[in-house]
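S.,

Sequence below, as promised.
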Amino acid sequence: MKKNLAVIVMGAKSDYDHAARIIEWLDYFGIAHETRIASAHKTPEKLLDIIAANENKDENIAYITIAGLSNALSGMVDFATVFPVVACPPPCDSFGGADIFSSLRMPPGVAAATVLDPRNAAFFVAKLFAASDAALKAKIAAYHEEQRAKIDRDEAALNAESGKEGASR
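The prediction came back faster than expected:
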């Protein structure tokens, strides 16, 4: 079975706090990862070299790109690789949040998925890898079951506190 590798590409070091939240969840699912800094605007050659180095690896690879404001990074990575790309831009108050459109609007043939929550970006990559990794698929199923059980426990606790069963208004 091929090794799974998530390659996190940040546009700047200032994106690391956002990346750390992704890394936490990649670690939870046991997904190997590497973190790189390269800018589509400032260091395009470096970015293309990073991608080229991964193209012939005998691994399942998914990229997670982190860039805000003008997100050329995600589109450039997506078009330069055959592997899936998940754009996970950090929150930004500039431009009233309209900078998100640079992650959402891609030209035809550039299909970077955009996932805003860092946990869900890692979870999405885990699901991509689970298509060919039975152990990861089982771990995701177990996580889903944990979440269902938590909802049931929370409801039982709420009902115990209120002395009622089920929902009422």
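The chain has two domains: 3-132, 134-169.

Coffee later?
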